[in-house]
Specification:
The complex is a heterotrimer of chains A (527), B (399) and C (314).
Chain A lengths: L1 H34 L9 H34 L5 H13 L2 H13 L1 H4 L9 H26 L2 H9 L4 H29 L3 H7 L6 H11 L3 H27 L16 H32 L1 H7 L6 H4 L3 H30 L5 H12 L6 H12 L3 H5 L1 H26 L3 H9 L4 H30 L2 H6 L7 H7 L7 H23 L8
Chain B lengths: L1 H23 L8 E6 L10 H9 L6 E6 L2 H10 L8 E6 L3 H7 L2 E2 L13 H5 L6 E13 L19 H4 L2 E4 L5 H14 E2 L4 E2 L6 H11 L1 E3 L2 H8 L8 E5 L2 H9 L4 E4 L8 E12 L5 H11 L2 H11 L2 E2 L20 E2 L6 H22 L3 H4 L1 H22 L1
Parallel strand pairs in B: 1-2, 1-3, 6-9, 6-10, 12-14
Antiparallel strand pairs in B: 3-12, 4-12, 5-10, 5-11, 5-12, 5-13, 7-8
Chain C lengths: L2 E10 L2 E11 L4 E5 L6 H9 L5 E7 L2 E2 L10 E4 L11 H6 L9 H15 L14 H13 L5 E5 L7 H18 L2 E6 L2 H7 L2 E6 L2 E6 L1 H6 L4 H6 L5 E2 L11 E2 L5 E4 L3 E8 L3 E6 L4 E5 L9 E6 L5 E2 L2
Parallel strand pairs in C: 3-8, 3-9, 6-7, 7-8
Antiparallel strand pairs in C: 1-2, 1-4, 4-5, 9-10, 11-12, 12-18, 13-17, 14-15, 14-17, 15-16
Classes of the chains: A mainly alpha (527), B alpha/beta (399), C alpha+beta (314).
C-alpha cells in the first residue's frame, strides 16, 4: 500500500519526463535495433578524430577553467573587498548568459581589435573553441569553489597549526581534500558542458572540429545519414549518463566536518581586486562589446538602428519579421516559466511523500538523467519519434517549447531538490503523525519553504529558454525563429546592426533575470 | 494565501505569454497549396510568387502557404520525414545533384509540364529525363571577387591552380559542399578540372582533386551557406575578397545599383572556359492532397509570367528560352561561351561516386588542416596521467 | 608549566565575553574549567593555544610572555570537541599527522606512534578507517594525535561531551591516568560537574565573565561560593531564600538534614532510589533526602528540617 501511494504521487512528473524525455530516446534506440546498423560506422577516421578532439578540448577546458576559476573562488571567499556582492554578480553573470551572445562578442573582439594590435588570433580555431568554453565556465568553477572555500572549517587549520604543520602542508592535507569533491563535481559539469557544446563548436569549428552534438546535427540534418546520427546519439547518451552517474557518486560523499568556525576574510583587497577585475574583464568582455556595438549603432545612426528591428527586408533571411523574432522569444520564455511552475509543483507533490533516502536515490537518477541529454540528441529523437505526424510540422512550436522546458528541467530540479533537502525531515514525519494529507503537507510545509526556490527556478527557466540555441536551431523553421537562432543565422555578419541589437535585447532579458534571481535569494551553482 | 499567490503568478505569466501569442497567431494553416522551398528563392529584391499565383488563380489571400528552409537539402529531409503523410504539395529548389537524394527517398512524382516545349533545349534531359522535376532556372558556378581588392587578376588566363598561390589562398571563401549547392558545384568543378585517378576519371588537366584540396584546406575559409559567405566577403576586417557564387552575381550590383565593382571568374585550363552548371527544378510531391492545383502551379512557374522575373529577382538564367535578357547583364559571362563540366562528370558518374567523394573531401578538408589539438595531445596524455590517481582512488568509493 | 592569563579582555563585536580576566593554571596538574555552555570556555583555550588573537591582555607560560608567539611555537596539544580527524586518512596516518613537520625517519616515526598509542590504548585500531570508529575511539585517536609531539600543555575542549555516560567516565579516567603518567599540564574544559569532580586536580568555575571560584573539587563542593557555583557543581537542595517558609537566606540543605515527621512541611514522594528520596513541596520546590525510612511513591509525607546543619553561603 505504501509503495502504491508513493508511485501515485510521482505520476505527474514521471509522466511528463516519460513522454517527453524517455519515450523519444526509446524510439531512437528502437530505430537502431530495427535498422540493423553496424557499430563499424563509428570507426570512420573522422569520427575517431572528432571524438579525440572532443575529449582533448573538454579536458583542456576543464584544466584552464580550474586554473583561472579556483583562485577566483579563493579570493572571493577570503578577501576583504568592499562591494563583494557586485563583483560576485559580475562573475556569475556569464553563467546565465545566452551562449550566442558570448560567441558573437568573442568573434567581434578577436576579429577587429586584436588584429589591429598586431595579434593574429583566430577565433575560428581549436584554441578559439577552447577559450570560448573557458570564458563561459570560469564563472561556474569560481562560484562552486568559492562556496566550498567558504565552507572550509578553520578549526582543522588551527589544529594543524598546533601540531606545527606548515602553510603548504596544511593546504595539501586540509584544503585540497576539503574542496576535492565539490571541485570534482564542478569539473564534471564543465566537462559535460564542453563535451556537449553545440553552438560554439558549430559556429567556430568550421566543420573541422566537431563534437558529437555537431556530428549528429550535420549527419541527421544536413547529410541525411540518419543511421549514423542515431548511433552517435546513443554514443553521446551513454557517455553522458556514465559521467552523470559518476557525478552523483562523487557528490554524495561529504568528507570533512563543515561545522565549527569558518575563515574570516583576511586577504587585502589590493592583492585580490586586480585579479578579480582581470577575470571579470575576460568573462564579461563579450557581453560588453556586444552592447557597446549596439549602442554605438544607436548613437551614430539612431534611425537606422531603431528601424532595423521593424524593417521587413530581413524577413526573407530570418523567415519572419524582426519584431516577431522578439515576440517569439518572449513567448517561449514565459510559457517555459509557466510549465516549469507546474512541473515544480508536481515534482514537490512527488517529493512530499518521500521521507526515506532510499527511495530518493532512484528518483535522483530518474530526475537527473535529463541533465545528461543534450538538446541536439533530444531534438533528433523528437524528429525520429514524432516527425512522421503532420501535427509535428504544424505545431512545431509546441515541441520547441517542450525542449525549452526540458533544458530547464535539470536546473529546476537541482534548485528545488537542494532546498527540499533543507526542510527538516522531522517536520515532515511530525506532520505525518498529525495525519496531514499529501496536499496539506505540500501546502503548509513544503510550499511556503520552497516558494522562493520555485520563483528562482521560474526566472532561471525563462533565462534558459531565451538563450536556448541547439534545439530551436534544429527544429525551427521561419516563423518561430528566436533571438538566439537569428544571431546564429547572422553570425558571419559582423558589420550588421541587427544581431547586435538582438544580442543587446537578449542581454537585457538575461540581466533582468539575473537581478531577479539575486533578489529572490540567489542561486547556488553547485547542488 | 499560498494558493492565491500561486494562482496569480500563473495567471500573470499566462496573460503575459498570451500577448505575443495573440499577435503571432498560434493556429494551424488553412492553405490549399503548401510549398516547401529555400529562403532565398526570388527573394532579392523580391517577387512574391505565392501572392502572384493566388491572383493568377483567383484564390483568396493565404491560400498558398510557403514554408521556407535554409537550404534545399533541408527541404528533402523534411519531405522525406513526412513521406507517409505529406504536407507539402510542391518542392521548389532541388538541383541536378540533389535530385538523386530525392529520387532515393521516393518523395516526388513525375509530372510532364505543358510548358516543356518552351524550355531551353536539353535542360529537361540534363535535370530529369524522367520528369521528376521541371527546370525553372540554371546558372554557372563561378568564383566572384571584389575588383578593387584584387586588381592583379586576369580573368582571361585564370586557372584553378592560381587559387593556391600565396597571394590568393588566404582570400578565398568557399561553402561546404556537404551543405551548400554552390559549394558542391565548386567541388565538382575541381574534380572536373583535376580528375580522379582512383576511378580513372580524366580531368581537363592531369592531376588529382585530392591534391588540390589538400593544399586548399590550409587556407580557404569554409562557411556553411552562401549567405554566410556573402556577409563575410563584405566584412572588410575579414580580409577575404573571393567567394564561390554564380557567373550572374556581378549583375546584381550592376542592375540594381549601377555598381560594377565585382566580377565573376571561371577557370581557363587548356584554352577553354570551364564551369559547373547547376539546374534547379520544382516537382510534385508524391501522394500530396492538392495534385491538380500543384500541377497548375508548376506550369505557371515556368510560364512567361514567372520566368520574366528570374533574371532580376533570382539572378539566374531562366529555363524558358524566349525570355529577354536585361541590358545590365551585358557584362556577364554568357552561358554559351562556357564548357560545362557536367558533360565530363555525367549523372551516372555522379550517382556512383558522389557519396564517396564527399566523405573523402571531408577527410581531406579536416586532415589537410594542421590540427592544433593534435599538437596538444601530449597535454591530454599528461592530464590523464594527472587525473588517473584521483580516478583510481575514487573508483573504489564509487563501486 | 604554569600558565598565566593576565587581564584578558575578549569582545566579539558588541558582546563582551570577558573583561580583565586573570587566572593561573597549575603546572603538572589536571586543571578543569567548568561552566555553562556558551560562556567562552573554548575561547580561553584558544587564547592559550594562540588561535584566538583578538584580545587584550597577556599570556605567560612559566613567566615567559608568549602573547605574541605563533601557534606552532607554543607547543600545545589541542583536542577539539569535534575531534577533527581526517576522514581521508586511517588512524595511523592521523596520529602521524603531527610528525609531518618534523624530519624523522620512517622507523623513528613508527616507534613514536606505537609508543604513544600504547599509552592511549589504540594500538589495535591503527589500520582502521576513521568512519569505522566509535565516538570514544575517535576521541582517543584525537588525544593520541595531540600527544605525539609531547606538548608542554594539553588543551582539551569538551572532549567527552558527545559520549554516553559509561564511555565518558571510562575516557575521563583514561585521561587522568595519562596525565598522571606523563605529568603534563592539562587544561580541560567541560560543562559536566561529574566529569570535573571525577578527574580534576583543580577546578575553575567560570561564570558571568569571570572565574568566580577556584580550588580542589572537594573544596568547592563542600564550600561553594554562592548558589551559582553550587548549581554549576550540580549540588542537591540549593534553596534560595524565601522559597521554603522559615529559610531567610540562600542555603544548601544537606540530604541528611531532612527527616520524616508526623507534622511539618507537606511533601509528595515522586521518586525513590536506593540512596535517595525525591520530594516535591506544595509550591513545587524539589528536595532530596537520604533514603532511610519506608515510603511509597505518590504518598503524602511530612518532613522537618534541621537548620543547624544548613550550609549558609557567605
Amino acid at each position: 500500500m505504501q509503495r502504491f501511494k508513493f508511485k501515485l504521487n510521482f505520476i505527474p512528473v514521471t509522466l511528463f519526463l516519460g513522454i517527453f524525455f524517455y519515450l523519444p530516446l526509446l524510439f531512437l534506440i528502437y530505430q537502431i535495433i530495427i535498422s540493423d546498423v553496424s557499430i563499424k560506422l563509428l570507426q570512420h577516421p573522422l569520427i575517431v578524430r572528432f571524438l579525440l578532439f572532443s575529449f582533448t578540448q573538454s579536458i583542456l577546458t576543464v584544466i584552464l577553467s580550474c586554473l583561472f576559476g579556483v583562485p577566483t573562488g579563493y579570493l572571493l571567499a577570503r578577501s576583504k573587498i568592499v562591494g563583494l556582492k557586485f563583483f560576485k554578480a559580475l562573475i556569475t553573470i556569464p553563467f546565465i548568459f545566452p551562449p550566442l551572445i558570448l560567441l558573437l562578442g568573442f568573434v567581434v573582439l578577436f576579429r577587429t581589435e586584436f588584429i589591429i594590435m598586431g595579434f593574429t588570433f583566430s577565433p575560428f580555431s581549436f584554441w578559439g573553441i577552447v577559450i570560448a568554453h573557458v570564458i563561459y565556465n570560469i564563472s561556474v568553477v569560481s562560484r562552486i569553489s568559492e562556496s566550498s572555500f567558504i565552507q572550509e572549517s578553520k578549526d582543522y587549520h588551527d589544529l594543524a597549526e598546533t601540531l606545527g604543520i606548515s602553510k603548504i602542508q596544511r593546504f595539501t592535507t586540509i584544503t585540497i581534500p576539503h574542496i576535492k569533491s565539490s571541485l570534482l563535481s564542478a569539473m564534471i559539469l564543465v566537462f559535460l558542458y564542453s563535451f556537449n557544446s553545440f553552438a560554439i563548436v558549430l559556429l567556430l569549428g568550421q566543420f573541422r572540429y566537431q563534437t558529437i552534438e555537431v556530428m549528429i546535427f550535420t549527419q541527421s540534418k544536413l547529410q541525411l545519414n540518419t543511421e549514423l546520427a542515431a548511433l552517435l546519439a546513443i554514443l553521446q547518451l551513454s557517455i553522458n549518463f556514465t559521467i552523470l552517474l559518476l557525478y552523483t557518486k562523487v557528490t554524495t560523499y561529504q568528507l570533512f566536518d563543515t561545522q565549527g568556525e569558518k575563515f574570516k576574510p583576511y586577504i587585502s583587497p589590493y592583492k585580490a581586486i586586480p585579479y578579480i577585475i582581470f577575470i571579470i574583464l575576460i568573462t564579461n568582455f563579450p557581453m560588453f562589446i556586444v552592447i557597446y556595438k549596439a549602442l554605438m549603432g544607436l548613437v551614430l545612426d539612431p534611425q537606422i538602428s531603431l528601424l532595423s528591428i521593424f524593417n521587413d527586408n530581413y524577413e526573407r533571411y530570418l523567415g519572419t519579421t524582426p519584431i516577431r523574432v522578439v515576440k517569439n522569444t518572449v513567448f517561449f520564455g514565459l510559457l517555459t516559466s509557466c510549465i516549469i511552475l507546474l512541473f515544480s509543483l508536481s515534482l514537490l507533490l512527488g517529493l512530499s511523500n518521500l521521507t526515506s533516502n532510499r527511495s530518493m536515490k532512484f528518483f535522483d537518477i530518474y530526475l537527473l538523467l535529463p541533465l545528461g541529454s543534450s538538446s541536439i540528441v533530444l531534438s533528433y529523437s523528437y524528429v525520429v519519434a514524432f516527425g512522421s505526424y503532420s501535427a509535428f510540422g504544424e505545431y512545431i512550436w509546441i515541441f520547441i517549447l517542450i525542449l525549452h522546458v526540458l533544458s530547464a528541467v535539470p536546473f529546476t530540479m537541482k534548485i528545488l531538490i537542494s532546498s527540499w533537502k533543507r526542510i527538516p525531515i522531522n517536520l515532515m514525519i511530525m506532520s505525518e503523525t498529525l495525519q496531514a494529507s499529501q496536499l496539506q503537507k505540500l501546502r503548509f510545509i513544503i510550499f511556503p519553504m520552497l516558494k522562493s526556490s520555485i520563483l528562482i527556478a521560474m526566472v532561471f527557466s525563462f533565462a534558459i529558454s531565451i538563450g536556448e540555441f541547439g534545439a530551436t536551431y534544429y527544429l525551427v523553421r521561419g516563423e518561430w525563429t528566436t533571438l538566439s537562432v537569428s544571431i546564429g543565422k547572422f553570425f558571419a555578419s559582423r558589420n550588421n546592426l541587427l544581431p547586435h541589437i538582438y544580442a543587446s535585447i537578449l542581454s537585457i532579458f538575461a540581466i533582468i533575470s539575473f537581478i531577479l534571481i539575486e533578489k529572490l535569494g540567489g542561486m547556488e551553482l553547485n547542488v | 494565501m499560498e494558493n492565491r499567490f500561486l494562482l496569480s503568478c500563473l495567471t500573470l505569466m499566462l496573460v503575459l505569454a498570451m500577448i505575443p501569442s495573440i499577435s503571432i497567431g498560434v493556429e494551424g494553416s488553412t492553405a490549399q497549396l503548401t510549398i516547401y522551398t529555400y529562403d532565398s528563392l526570388l527573394a532579392d529584391p523580391g517577387y512574391q510568387f505565392d501572392r502572384q499565383f493566388e491572383t493568377y488563380q483567383g484564390l483568396p489571400y493565404g491560400s498558398v502557404e510557403v514554408v521556407l528552409f535554409e537550404d534545399a537539402a533541408s527541404i528533402i529531409i523534411q519531405a522525406s520525414a513526412e513521406k507517409s503523410n505529406p504536407i507539402a504539395d510542391v518542392l521548389i529548389g532541388i538541383d541536378n545533384i540533389l535530385i538523386e537524394k530525392a529520387r532515393n527517398q521516393d518523395i516526388l512524382q513525375p509530372y510532364v509540364s505543358t510548358q516543356l516545349n518552351y524550355l531551353e533545349d536539353g535542360l529537361v534531359q540534363e535535370l530529369a529525363s524522367d520528369n521528376l522535376l521541371t527546370p525553372y532556372d540554371y546558372g554557372i558556378i563561378s568564383l566572384w571577387y571584389l575588383n578593387d581588392r584584387l586588381p592583379s587578376i586576369n580573368p582571361g588566363s585564370f586557372v584553378l591552380e592560381d587559387l593556391l598561390t600565396e597571394e590568393l589562398s588566404n582570400q578565398i571563401i568557399i561553402q561546404n559542399p556537404l551543405l551548400s549547392s554552390p559549394g558542391l558545384g565548386f567541388f565538382l568543378w575541381t574534380i572536373g578540372i583535376y580528375g580522379d585517378p582512383e576511378i580513372d576519371l580524366d580531368g581537363v588537366i592531369d592531376g588529382n582533386w585530392r591534391e588540390f584540396w589538400d593544399m586548399a584546406a590550409e587556407n580557404f575559409h569554409l562557411t556553411s551557406s552562401w549567405g554566410e559567405a556573402f556577409e563575410l566577403l563584405y566584412t572588410e576586417e575579414s580580409g577575404k575578397s573571393i567567394m564561390v557564387s554564380y557567373t550572374t552575381s556581378p549583375a546584381y550590383g550592376a542592375c540594381l545599383y549601377d555598381d560594377y565593382s565585382t566580377s565573376a571568374l571561371l577557370s581557363n585550363e587548356q584554352g577553354n572556359t570551364w564551369g559547373w552548371k547547376q539546374i534547379e527544378g520544382l516537382g510534385l510531391v508524391k501522394n500530396s492532397d492538392n495534385q491538380d492545383l500543384a500541377k497548375e502551379f508548376i506550369d505557371w512557374f515556368v510560364s512567361e509570367e514567372v520566368q520574366n522575373e528570374i533574371y532580376m529577382n533570382q539572378w539566374m538564367y531562366p529555363s524558358r528560352s524566349n525570355i529577354q535578357q536585361p541590358s545590365c547583364y551585358s557584362d556577364v559571362i554568357q552561358p554559351n561561351t562556357i564548357y560545362p563540366l557536367n558533360t565530363r562528370i555525367t549523372t551516372d558518374i555522379l550517382e556512383s561516386n558522389l557519396d564517396n567523394w564527399l566523405s573523402e573531401w571531408e577527410i581531406v578538408w579536416v586532415e589537410g588542416y594542421d590540427p592544433a589539438f593534435l599538437n596538444f595531445n601530449y597535454l591530454l596524455f599528461f592530464s590523464v596521467l594527472l587525473i588517473l590517481p584521483i580516478i583510481r582512488r575514487n573508483i573504489k568509493k564509487v563501486i | 608549566m604554569i600558565i598565566n592569563l593576565r587581564e584578558i579582555t575578549l569582545q566579539y563585536s558588541n558582546h563582551i565575553l570577558f573583561e580583565n580576566l586573570s587566572v593561573e593554571f597549575y603546572s603538572g596538574k589536571l586543571n578543569t574549567l567548568l561552566g555553562k555552555s556558551g560562556i567562552g570556555k573554548t575561547s580561553i583555550l584558544k587564547i592559550i593555544a594562540g588561535i584566538e588573537t583578538n584580545y587584550t591582555g597577556e599570556v605567560y607560560f612559566d613567566d615567559i610572555n608568549v602573547t605574541n608567539l605563533s601557534i606552532k611555537d607554543r607547543s600545545v596539544g589541542w583536542v577539539p570537541q569535534q575531534q577533527l580527524l581526517f576522514p581521508s586518512m586511517n588512524v595511523y596516518k592521523n596520529v602521524e599527522y603531527g610528525l609531518l613537520s618534523k624530519k624523522l625517519s620512517r622507523e623513528r616515526r613508527k616507534s613514536m606512534i606505537l609508543e604513544i598509542s600504547e599509552l592511549t590504548g589504540i594500538n589495535h585500531l591503527l589500520d582502521r578507517n576513521i568512519e569505522k570508529l566509535s565516538g570514544g575511539e575517535k576521541q582517543r585517536v584525537a588525544l593520541t594525535r595531540s600527544l605525539i609531539l609531547k606538548p608542554r600543555v594539553l588543551l582539551m575542549d569538551e572532549p567527552f561531551s558527545s559520549l554516553d555516560t559509561p564511555e565518558r567516565k571510562k575516557l575521563s579516567l583514561l585521561l587522568k591516568d595519562i596525565q598522571l603518567e606523563t605529568g603534563i599540564t592539562t587544561i580541560h574544559v567541560t560543562h559536566s560537574s561529574m566529569e570535573a569532580e571525577l578527574i580534576s586536580d583543580y577546578l575553575y568555575i567560570l561564570s558571568d565573565q569571570m572565574i568566580i571560584q577556584q580550588g580542589s573539587p572537594m573544596h568547592i563542593s563542600n564550600r561553594p561560593f554562592n548558589t551559582e557555583v553550587a548549581r554549576i557543581m550540580n549540588l542537591s537542595n540549593v534553596i534560595t531564600k524565601g522559597s521554603i517558609e522559615g529559610i531567610l537566606s540562600d542555603v544548601i540543605i544537606p540530604t541528611d538534614a531532612i527527616k520524616l515527621s508526623q507534622n511539618g512541611i507537606a511533601a509528595k514522594v515522586i521518586s525513590q532510589t536506593r540512596e535517595t528520596i525525591h520530594l516535591r513541596l506544595m509550591d513545587g520546590t524539589l528536595l532530596e533526602m537520604n533514603n532511610n525510612s519506608p515510603v511509597k511513591l505518590g504518598e503524602l509525607v511530612f518532613i522537618e528540617l534541621d537548620p543547624d546543619r544548613f550550609y549558609k553561603f557567605r
